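Take a record:
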Amino acid sequence: MAKNDGRVLAQNRRASHDYFIEETFEAGIVLQGTEIKSVRKGSVNFKDAFARVENGEVFLHNMHISPYEQGNRYNHDPLRTRKLLLHKKEISKLLGKSKETGYAIIPLKMYIKNGYAKVLIGLAKGKKNYDKRETLKRKTAQREIEKAFRERQKM
């Protein structure tokens, strides 16, 4: 088992707040040169990142991978478009759903699996403001129930 195997390197915490995640897919990601060293270090930012199907391939846009400090002239462009590796059936499913109004393909988290960098992408439908408030109320109520349960267990 390789070092850092199974460890989540970056996570998109805003995704569950802004979207209803309907389906998830695990995708490989094509990286250049020193990008994998920055990814293993955890220098990844998903803010404003999204995926798009173009010409039968899936590309990840606006994901920031910081340049590697010891990379000097071999460093990469931090915001370059990166290709995601998926099966043809998965791509066609994503293409069909993402063309519907309100759907987006967003990255949820990045991790290392068997020595390869993987991105968990989700097929997501945008939440309205009242949905976000309802989710927040539900989370708060659940937190209070758990707190009361813990207090009762102590007695």
Observations:
- The chain has four helices and nine strands.
- The mean pLDDT is 87.
- The CA atoms of residues 1 and 87 lie 25 Å apart.
